[in-house]
Write a structure and sequence with these properties.
355 residues; 8-stranded parallel β-barrel
Length: 355
């Protein structure tokens, strides 16, 4: 142990891998070093997590978030599905509460997300264009939301999941139908920059580590936006991955995304045990691999130039709060257990961030 009282990288990695070899019960009940430092104190970039307003009513979770993270992403309450009401009015109570927590604890806010193909609010679908044109309503929404959190929001997922599931082209949506396949995307970035000249404006997507075609299409879209003069200033990779993902895939993906020179956001990281395709792996082996995935992701991110490390966001800190646990109660995808104790994944992150 160093004079500072902090564990060496070798000691932390060793304890993390030892724990990951334990069975599921042991992995939940044991803790990895009791004095493991908070993630935000060892990472040379912001550590984020997602949150819903109701999470802030849980004192233990609120304390864990404040201790470990210095950036918040609204899990879903800054999306159109929450903000845009059927009559076209905007509702901000939950996102305002999340923003207030971030401000009170000196955290940055990551706006998630302005435009998403999957959401087409009723108010937009039945828009009376005799009163306001579709493009104006689209712009007004982005301006209203971004301006509201200007000065607190360090960045925005301006357009989310624009690339088709199989990677061949872009997704169709209400926005593309009314404003154009590429035009609605470029307009969103220009409008967000008008509303906030300082925030990082990200393009965010998922399965970029699994699907080479999707990753290539994602990068081509980013290149086209840059060539058009649209103010794209960062790339987000969600990283909802399974514990049995092949070693090296994550490193290769992060390296390729970084080739454009833009800041990179690991935006929604969790590592599922139950979504693993190899059903012959024991629980203990899956836990070991889960720790290795967290380690590889952190090490690949640390290998980026400092200016390209935007933030590293965990999609939930405790197992019990994860959307994956709601999907399958047998999953344990997070780096803290149900009681908020650090697991092997947390120790692996600390080791990588301090290397």
């Amino acid at each position: 142990m160093a004079a500072s009282g902090l564990y060496s990288r070798r000691a932390v990695v060793g304890s993390a891998l030892a724990l990951s070899a334990c069975g599921a019960k042991d992995a939940q009940s044991q803790s990895v070093p009791a004095d493991l430092p908070p993630l935000k104190t060892v990472a040379p970039f912001r550590i984020g997590t997602c949150v819903q307003a109701l999470h802030l009513d849980d004192p233990a979770l609120a304390a864990l978030i404040a201790r470990q993270a210095n950036q918040l992403t609204a899990e879903w309450q800054m999306k159109m599905e929450y903000i845009v009401q059927p009559d076209g009015s905007f509702r901000f109570d939950a996102p305002d509460r999340i923003a207030a927590f971030a401000r009170a604890h000196g955290m940055g806010l990551l706006g998630h997300t302005l435009i998403w193909y999957a959401q087409a609010p009723e108010a937009f679908q039945r828009l009376d264009e005799n009163r306001i044109g579709f493009a104006d309503a689209y712009r007004n929404y982005i301006l209203a939301v971004v301006e509201r959190y200007r000065g607190l929001a360090v960045g925005w997922d301006v357009v989310n999941e624009a690339v088709a599931e199989d990677g061949n082209g872009w997704r169709g949506s209400l926005w593309s139908e009314r404003l154009g396949d590429f035009e609605h995307i470029a307009l969103a970035y220009r409008t967000a920059r008008e509303a906030d000249p300082q925030a990082t404006l990200l393009l965010n997507d998922y399965n970029l580590e699994y699907n080479d075609t999707k990753r290539a299409t994602f990068l081509k879209l980013a290149e086209r936006l840059l060539a058009s003069g649209a103010p794209l200033t960062g790339l987000g990779t969600q990283m909802h991955v399974a514990a049995d993902i092949a070693p090296g895939k994550i490193t290769r993906m992060i390296r390729e995304l970084a080739s454009l020179g833009l800041p990179i956001h690991v935006s929604e990281l969790d590592v599922s045990l139950t979504r693993s395709e190899n059903k012959l792996l024991s629980r203990g082996e899956l836990l070991r691999r889960q720790t290795a995935v967290y380690a590889e992701t952190a090490e690949a991110f640390m290998a980026l130039p400092q200016r390209q490390r935007f933030a590293f966001t965990l999609w939930g800190l405790r197992d019990r709060d994860s959307w994956l646990t709601a999907e399958n109660a047998g999953d344990a995808p997070a780096v803290f257990d149900n009681a908020g104790r650090p697991k092997a994944g947390a120790a692996a992150l600390v080791a990588a961030f301090r290397a």
